[in-house]
Write a structure and sequence with these properties.
heterodimer, A: alpha/beta, Peroxisomal Thiolase, Chain A, domain 1, two-stranded antiparallel ribbon, 13 strands, globular, disordered N terminus, B: alpha/beta, 13 helices, 14 strands, 22% strand
Chain lengths: 409, 358
């Protein structure tokens, strides 16, 4: 890890000029794109099986992190993680099993049965490792793509079936990819999201990078000392809007725009000025034909590491300007852990619930704010606040950043 | 499968290709008409299988090996292919060198350049190495730098850091169609105006994936194991990255264009060339390139439906290039006067078609 640089405000580069009129031109393209809506959701997290227990844990600010039971983790010292401890149902290896369970819930909530899927249905899953890591056997070459292929087999999908793997931004990037797929007419319905399973392999890597908190995960807090890992899956059913309206599907939200961008500076450390995530957020807003002033809530990557939280704060300030302190921001990672490839998808599900219910989950464990993280992170308790337009961001190793703009139906 | 057409069609402004047949596509083209690679079967003579790229890659990039000390083979191949692709462009169109960003903060990264890479094996070699180290060594002795290479998007990071590319970035690990998917995603991003140039293609490094189950790689007992497999399905090293672009600058620098794409999941092997051509619409089709190993009956059906047009089966020239096959096939199309249809297929059922013409 790089030494932590000091960033006086005066040295932060000037915010890029974001012209709302230019942004409404969607990258300057006149391409006509179909609108994409969310009609179903499924989740599997440390809070249990289902969106409901996940959402309840979020709005109650109830951390599901606990000592690891799935394998002997004593060598890593005092650690907590967000393990799924429900019944081990589902086919195949764990990441595939998680995805299948979440997909079943997502399709059921969309009012869809297997036989009712349109011919051009596909899937995009984001994952860091998929089922490449299997206990007591060598890594599996096709394991990265195994969860998406499990969905394809289970639901006899004949549209595009894809796996996106951009480390911790995989879930967000998968949603961006699937929405683009429907938008350009390649598919009418996509099962999309992310899945990853906890393992000694993953914990060892983050432990070696000294990224794990031995205490509490405290995003944006002065005492923050690292992240806690988690596992699970988040799946969404995305449909072309007109098709969803025709079949009277429950329209939960709209995927209005997306963007990805590279930091182009370091394999494990983010740009200290948040340039990459700022480019991703700006691209997502332009794609959604929205201006920064339209954003009413930001779901931060919010890992609880010193670098990430400060970098995100700088990027959000550069994006929103004087309005930055007025926009609520949260991190649900102290509640379910950092679920890697699933994180962006679960955070998108949380955004949809926020848009639907007008309740913003708190960033828990934030009691001593870092002077360099001086925005509104909704500390302590959930807040009732209507939101029409939400921005969700993810950042990852290799300098990858992804952002989504979601709007209420 | 639903067709996606690109209008204006993005162009290929340069290719960086590395295969066991050498640098570029000349070695591949010279092999047309030669015997197939692989162990002999019956009376059919076969050439020996070359699975690796016997090129000094740091020297090819004008670098010392020290420059690549933290990369695995997957990263080195990707970096070298990107270097070759950019070297073919006019200097005035290339991205600004990272020296323009001495703080290494990414602030000077060029948002008009993106990176989209596909791979089936991707980082599994480094995953295997970290798993092996974890089993064999005390935890405190392990190197975090190996774990950093276990993310599939490490090559995107290498390339974006190396050339200061701050635009859209995606990594697909879908299987053998991941290279075609990267090209499609790049074309869509260019059409939507998300970037002006994108480095798009695929990298497969089976050599670094030794000990990985299902890598399609002959291990220590190469001869015996290879003889038990379909010879063309032995995965060989390959990397092909294209500079794809839009706009007037791009139009001036590269004549080959991506006209349309088709994608779908087809485990029942119902793929029909006739149906694909009907969906794509009129195009000056000269050659069909089958980029990956497919079942013999499907290959025969494609040859019949091609109606006398030449069908080039890429694995017969060089072995199975995995996700890199489609990108290498696009580079071959650059050398052909008429339009080319590239068919990429994964054993799990993934199918992608790229329609390319001038």
């Amino acid at each position: 890890m790089r030494p932590e640089p000091s960033i006086p405000d005066s040295s932060i580069p000037r915010a890029p000029a974001i012209d709302p009129d230019a942004a409404r031109g969607a990258h300057g393209s006149d391409t006509v794109r179909r609108r994409v809506v969310v009609t179903g959701m499924g989740a599997l997290t440390a809070a249990g099986e289902g969106v409901l227990p996940f959402w309840r844990a979020c709005i109650e600010g109830r951390s599901m992190l606990a000592p690891i039971e799935g394998f002997d983790a004593r060598e890593f010292g005092p650690l907590r993680a967000g393990e799924f401890k429900g019944p081990a149902r589902g086919r195949g290896e764990r990441a595939s099993g998680f995805a299948l369970l979440a997909a079943a819930e997502a399709l059921a909530s969309a009012g869809l049965e297997r036989s009712a899927l349109p011919p051009a249905s596909g899937a995009v899953l984001g994952t860091c490792l998929g089922d490449a890591i299997a206990p007591a056997s060598p890594p599996v070459a096709g394991g990265l793509a195994a969860p998406a292929l499990s969905l394809a087999a289970a639901y006899k999908l004949s549209g595009p079936v894809s796996t996106v793997s951009v480390a911790c931004a995989s879930g967000t990037a998968a949603i961006a990819s699937a929405a683009a797929c429907i938008g350009r007419g390649e598919a009418d319905l996509m099962l999309v999201g992310g899945t990853d399973a906890l393992s000694r392999f993953v914990v060892s890597g983050f432990w070696l990078l000294r990224a794990l908190s031995p205490t509490l995960v405290r995003p944006f807090d002065q005492r923050r000392d690292g992240l806690a890992l988690g596992e699970g899956a988040g799946l969404l059913v995305l449909e072309e809007r007109d098709r969803a309206l025709r079949r009277r599907a429950p329209i939960l939200a709209e995927i209005a725009g997306s963007g990805t961008a590279g930091d182009a500076c370091h394999m494990t450390g983010p740009s200290p000025y948040g340039d990459g995530v700022l480019r991703a957020m700006t691209a997502a807003l332009a794609d959604a034909r929205r201006a920064p002033d339209d954003i009413g809530f930001i779901s931060a990557h919010g890992t609880g590491t010193r670098f990430n939280d400060r970098m995100e704060t700088v990027a959000i300030k550069r994006l929103l300007g004087p309005r930055a302190p007025l926009v609520p921001i949260d991190s649900i990672k102290p509640i379910i852990g950092h679920t890697l490839g699933a994180a962006g998808a679960l955070e998108a599900i949380a955004c949809v619930k926020i848009l639907q219910e007008g309740i913003i989950p708190p960033t828990i464990n934030l009691t001593a704010p870092d002077p360099e993280c001086d925005l509104d992170y909704v500390p302590g308790e959930a807040r009732r606040q209507q939101v029409r337009c939400a921005l969700s961001t993810s950042s990852a190793f290799a300098g990858h950043n992804a952002a989504l703009v979601l709007e209420g139906s | 499968m639903k067709v996606v057409r690109f209008d204006p069609a993005p162009v290929f402004a340069g290719f960086g290709v590395l295969t066991p047949a050498g640098v570029g596509v000349a070695g591949l083209l010279a092999r047309r008409g030669e015997t197939r690679p692989g162990p002999g079967r019956g009376s059919e003579p076969r050439r020996p299988i070359e699975t690796g790229i016997a090129v000094d890659l740091p020297a090819l990039c004008g670098q010392t090996p020290l420059r690549f000390r933290r990369m695995d083979r997957f990263g080195v191949l990707g970096h070298a292919a990107a270097h070759l692709a950019l070297a073919g462009m006019p200097a005035s169109s290339r991205p600004a060198p990272p020296a323009a960003d001495p703080s290494r903060s990414g602030a000077a990264a060029d948002p008009s350049w993106g990176v989209m890479i596909g791979s089936r094996l991707a980082c599994v070699g480094s995953i295997a190495r970290h798993a092996r180290d974890l089993a064999d060594q005390p935890l405190a002795d392990l190197s975090p730098s190996v774990f950093v290479r276990t993310v599939a998007n490490a090559v995107n990071g290498d390339i974006s850091i190396g050339w200061g590319l701050g635009g859209p970035s995606e990594t697909f690990v879908t299987g053998w169609t991941a290279g075609a998917e990267a090209v499609l995603a790049a074309a869509a991003a260019l059409q939507e105006g998300r970037a002006r140039w994108i480095l798009a293609g695929a990298v497969e490094a089976p050599d670094h994936a030794r000990g990985v189950a299902g890598s399609g790689r002959p291990r220590e007992t190469a001869g015996q194991e290879a003889a038990e497999q379909e010879p063309d399905s032995i995965l060989v090293e390959g990397a092909a990255i294209a500079v794809m672009g839009r706009g007037s600058g791009a139009q001036a620098s590269g004549p080959l264009r991506l006209r349309a794409c088709l994608r779908g999941h087809d485990p029942q092997q119902r793929f029909s060339l006739t149906a694909a051509l009907d969906a794509i619409g009129p195009m000056p089709l000269g050659t069909v390139i089958v980029a990956n190993t497919i079942r013999t009956d499907l290959l025969r059906r494609i040859e019949e439906e091609a109606g006398g047009r030449p069908v080039l089966h890429l694995p017969r020239l060089v072995g199975e290039l995995g996700a890199a096959g489609a990108a290498v096939a696009a580079a071959l199309a650059q050398e052909m006067p008429e339009g080319v249809l590239v068919i990429a297929r994964d054993p799990a059922g993934g199918t992608a078609v790229l329609a390319l013409s001038r």
